Amino acid sequence: MTPLRHEDIRSLLAANEAPCVTICMATNRTYPDNQQDPIRYRNLVDRVAAELKAQTSAAEASSIIDRLREVQDDHGLWTHGTGGLAVLASKGRHQVFKFPRAVPEVAAVGDSFHVKPLLRHTQSAGRFHLLALARDRAALFEGDRYHLEELDVPHVPLNMADALAPAAVGEEAGIGETKVAGQPAAGTGRPRFATVQAEQATRRLDFLPDVERYFHALDRAVTDQVSVPSRLPLVVAAIPENFSHFKAASNNPHMIGTFIPENPFALSREELRERAWAAFEPEYVERTQGLADQFRGALTKGLATENVVVAGREAANGRIGILLVDADQRIPGELDRATGEFHPAAAGNNTTDDALDDLAESVLRTGGEVVVVPRDRMPTGTGLAAIYRY
After folding, report:
1. Intra-chain end-to-end CA distance of the chain, in Å
2. DSSP secondary-structure letter at 159?
């Protein structure tokens, strides 16, 4: 299972491989509630299977449905529910993403993937990555103010044995042939981290050159595989000596200067989350305040809007460079994808369509940036703040 990256959303928005299947659902973290999750998923697959058979050939429909059924049979996936799940499938694509929060239920077949349920998670200003670091091992997490989930990312060496294995050494201690962490730990107890696999690595812990080589390899992998694709800030938890050496070895532009000066492997998951948010919060406040100030300055020059009708039209023309979206607000209705025209929902219509999500999609399709922030950090009361490129 891999984290959903910024570039994944852009790729999904640009996909032209109909029919595209999107299944999203909330998942439970604990037994016995999680026993119902695969059953609910099976029912959603049944719904899309009928639509697929009506839209494409029997062979192509069968191929996509078979891959969707494989997810249903993945026992580890359902045992370690994290809050939300998205499964996206087409003739040339099959991706599964897990989220720390619930996502609205969707079972859709269309000409494009239905990414609205994913946007408010992936574009949230409050997300960060956390690297728990010791001399010989590491663990990687994604989190926000309320949740922290362990990640399983291919090609990130989570112990020294992997990073300094012969194949990796031959590639200058790069990511080479690596092993990956297990499934995320369940519940809120102590994290289940990767452990050293070879006694040789343990015997070499006192040799600083090996530690430095490991830190170099780890930093390069985390930068290339996690931080750059997601663009999320990286918080490091390590005792001061280890952090000092890792910082000296690092070229990660997303690593923040504040770190957690404790042994992360002696902390519970909840303790890690609390300390990570305390370290990240000043960066978060500074960024959201800076964006709000930028919007106010642009508004005085006629280079911004808080009106959904105007913003829809400007987004369709590719003029919006930055869009702030209120995480807690919806504008019932739709935006025409081609023209940006706003069609409000009729009075009394309980539609789930949200013009703010349509607007965010439109801005991302034209290369703009979308940032989802809580209401108390928004510079407007309309649910949006759009800053023009020109």
Report:
1. 40
2. B
- Coarse DSSP helix, strand, coil percentages of the chain, rounded to the nearest 5 percent: 40, 20, 40
296: how many CB neighbours lie within 10 A of its CB?
14
Q: pLDDT-based confidence at 255, cuts 50/70/90?
A: very high
**What is the rounded distance in angstroms from the CA atom of residue 359 to the CA atom of residue 340?**
8
Lookup: tokens for 110: 């269309």
Token representation of residue 58? 């029997």
Instruction: Give the least confident one: 87-96, 112-121, 232-241, 282-291.
Output: 112-121
What structural domains and CATH numbers belong to the chain?
A: 6-122 (3.30.960.10), 128-284 (3.30.420), 302-388 (3.30.1330)
Cβ(355)–Cβ(383) below 8 Å: no
Helices and strands (DSSP H and E) totals, the chain: 14, 14
> Could you report the per-residue pLDDT of 277-286, keeping only the tens digit for each?
999 999 999 9
Which tens digit of pLDDT belongs to each residue from 145-157?
988 989 888 889 9
Radius of gyration of the chain (CA): 22
Six-digit token string for 374: 């809580």
